[in-house]
Design brief:
Layout: E1 4-8, H1 13-24, E2 28-33, E3 48-51, H2 57-64, E4 71-74, H3 81-86, H4 88-109, E5 113-119, H5 142-160, E6 164-170, E7 172-174, H6 192-200, E8 207-210, E9 222-223, E10 225-227, H7 228-243, E11 249-253, E12 259-260, H8 261-272, E13 277-280, E14 289-290, H9 295-301, H10 310-332
Helix pairs in contact: 1-7, 2-4, 4-5, 6-8, 6-10, 8-10
The structure holds uridine-5'-diphosphate.
The site of uridine-5'-diphosphate has 14 residues, from helix 6 and strand 8.
Length: 333
């Protein structure tokens, strides 16, 4: 069978990295993306881009029918936790309902493999210990619930039909393609490293630290930041496992150790020069510490991360941010 992959959300941050990685190793790639938060210039030249909503099931069905696809990598979705609290039904629509339609199209067209972009938000509040996959699933936001529902649908569909899947639960994804081809370009991003590098290039005045009274070593929250290139590498390994006839799998993706907000911002200062910081109140819903136990991905996928280095993550994110700035200046002049 041809190694031909439909990448949903392939014009977005993580999806575009996956599209590049697949093209790099010789898979055929078709991207479906409605370009609501993604950009066509992040898509590899060798991939076909279909500008459409994955909720357009007629379009998806006709793409998949006789399209020769052996896999779907599903990245399209909404990802802002507070937004999901304010507007839950649009999250269930975008993340759950549309995924249901996509899975049904896959089953009907006989696409045998499905790799799904999930999240550590399916676990909800966790203690300070690394979180393994058998931790009880108690999402605390509509975002986490909307993703968990898709995990459940996939598992049930796989039991009933000729389908195997990889579910990958992301911790804090950051950084950019070391080759400089793509990176986090979403407008109004809220993630720590993205916000910090935006401050470093002067796109923002500074950064607010959301709380320093947590039960952690320096009082700020601890997260497991994983380089997007390592994250994407695990997706390709998961796909290979399925293509080789391996069983479906659900695995965490993180490095198994964390950094505090202050440590991250110190690294940004070291790499880019000091940025302005202000101390603010806690952000509602933030847990003190969230770190992955990602031993399963290493064990089952033979995943060997190459970019477990916070300085390198920040350098790549900063290089991309500077690129975006130059690009912006070029297009606005
Ligand atoms: N954070 C912060 N200032 C910001 C953005 C984030 O202090 O401008 C903190 C946030 O409170 C959390 C950590 O950085 O403790 C990581 O937040 P992010 O939104 O990047 O990821 P999350 O862990 O919420 O998915």
């Amino acid at each position: 069978m041809t190694k031909r992959v439909l990448v949903t959300g392939g014009a977005g941050y993580i999806g575009s990295h996956a599209a590049h990685a697949l093209v790099d190793r010789g898979d055929e790639v078709v991207i479906i993306d409605r370009l609501s938060t993604g950009f066509d210039w992040l898509v590899p030249a060798a991939a076909d881009l279909v500008v459409a909503d994955i909720g357009d099931t007629e379009r998806v069905a006709s793409l998949l029918q006789d399209g020769g696809f052996d896999a779907i990598m599903h990245f399209a979705g909404s990802i802002v936790v507070p937004e999901s609290v304010a507007d839950p039904l649009s999250y269930y629509e975008n993340n759950t309902v549309k995924s249901r339609g996509l899975i049904e199209c896959a089953v009907r067209a006989g696409v045998p493999h499905f790799v799904f972009s999930s999240t550590a938000a399916v676990y909800g509040s966790v203690g300070s210990e690394p979180v393994a996959e058998d931790t009880p699933l108690r999402p605390e936001s509509p975002y986490g619930s909307s993703k968990l529902m898709t995990e459940i649908m996939l598992a049930d569909a796989a039991r009933a039909h000729d389908l195997t899947y990889g579910v990958l639960r992301y911790f804090n994804v950051a950084g950019a393609d070391p080759a400089g081809r793509t990176g986090q370009s979403t407008k109004g991003a809220t993630h720590l490293i993205k916000v910090a590098v935006e401050a470093a290039v002067g796109k923002r005045e500074g950064i607010e630290i959301f709380g320093e009274d947590y039960q952690t070593a320096d009082g700020t929250c601890v997260r497991d930041y994983i380089h997007v290139t390592d994250l994407v590498a695990a997706h390709l390994l998961a796909l290979d496992r399925l293509r080789d006839g391996g069983d479906s799998l659900t695995a965490n993706l993180g490095y198994g150790h964390g950094f505090s907000v202050k440590e991250v911002l110190q690294t940004v200062d070291d790499v880019a020069g000091p940025i302005r910081k202000t101390m603010g109140p806690r952000r509602p819903g933030d847990a003190a510490s969230i770190v992955a136990d990602a031993s399963k991905a290493r064990r089952e996928l033979n995943w060997q991360p190459q970019h477990d280095d916070l300085t390198g993550i920040v350098e790549d994110a900063l290089r991309w941010e500077r690129h975006l700035q130059t690009r912006n200046e070029a297009t606005t002049n």
